[in-house]
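Exercise 7. Given the encoded structure of a 168-residue chain, write a plausible sequence.
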């Protein structure tokens, strides 16, 4: 099974047991403030399935973010192909359970995904698609070295595109 390890986290492919911890995140109105609506249990189940299909088709997707110490699933982070301005881009996406916010977990996971995208997958550019009002997500993108590239209308509303390119 695919695994990325960081100092405090393990990122791994979704498993059936991740449904409940992920649903606690995706059904929370505060966490999903920048999405059209919080997820139902079925929508969370579909999210897991869609990412499991991405693992098979693309070789990557969003992965479960687990605390190394306890193996508790506290969110997800990973790489997803997105169509932006008629081009396929690879996005680093992340969602962390709000009880773990402001502890650096999203940044730690996103940094690991950035390194994986550049070093293992050989990508030259990665993006994050962020609601312009989502300051915590913007901070994570900036902490991993991304800068605002442009604004686009995607997913039914305006989003900022933050990006980073492989150095060297």
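Solution.
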């Amino acid at each position: 099974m695919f695994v990325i390890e960081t100092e405090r986290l393990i990122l791994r492919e979704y498993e059936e047991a991740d449904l409940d911890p992920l649903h606690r995140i995706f059904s929370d109105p505060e966490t999903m403030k920048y999405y059209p609506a919080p997820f139902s249990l079925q929508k969370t189940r579909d999210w897991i399935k869609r990412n499991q299909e991405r693992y098979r088709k693309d070789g990557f997707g969003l992965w479960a973010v687990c605390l190394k110490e306890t193996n508790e699933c506290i969110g997800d982070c990973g790489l997803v192909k997105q169509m932006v301005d008629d081009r396929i881009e690879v996005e680093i996406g992340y969602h962390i359970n709000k009880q773990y916010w402001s502890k650096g977990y999203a940044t730690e996971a996103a940094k690991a995904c950035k390194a994986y995208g550049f070093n293992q997958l050989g990508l030259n550019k990665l993006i994050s698609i962020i609601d312009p009002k989502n300051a915590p997500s913007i901070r994570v993108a900036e902490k991993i070295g991304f800068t605002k590239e442009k604004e686009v209308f995607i997913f039914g509303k305006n989003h900022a595109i933050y990006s980073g390119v492989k150095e060297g």
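Remark. The chain is about 30% helix and 35% strand. Students should compare their own answers with the one above.
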